[in-house]
Amino acid sequence: MNKLKPEFIKDISIGSLIYDDERQDPIEWLREHGWQVDTANRLEQAAAYGRPAPSEHSDVTSLWSDAYFITATR
Questions:
Q1: Cβ(68)–Cβ(43) below 8 Å
Q2: What is the DSSP string of 2-63?
Q3: Mean pLDDT by 10 residues, the chain (74 residues)
């Protein structure tokens, strides 16, 4: 398996990927611009990949409880 090299990930700022301010819903934006959009929550996605569902009481789960996955195709 390939490992990520430190020089590859050194410029990634997780904070820049997360926001708290009001923004347009990405699903609505994609649909308004002609995309076909499908969504899945974390439990659905884990099941689709044959992965165990994350514990409902873990610290990670509480951080990502509102997270969902978007697939958009044209």
A1: no
A2: PPPPHHHHTT--GGGG---S----HHHHHHHTT-EEEEEEHHHHHHHTTPPPPPTTSHHHHH
A3: 59 76 92 96 85 70 76 96
42 occurs within a structural domain: yes
Does 45 fall in a domain?
Answer: yes
Q: Considering the domain boundaries, does residue 25 fall inside one?
A: no
Would you put residue 52 in left (φ > 0), alpha (ψ -120 to 50) or beta?
Answer: beta
pTM above 0.85, yes or no: no
Domain with 64 in it: 32-74
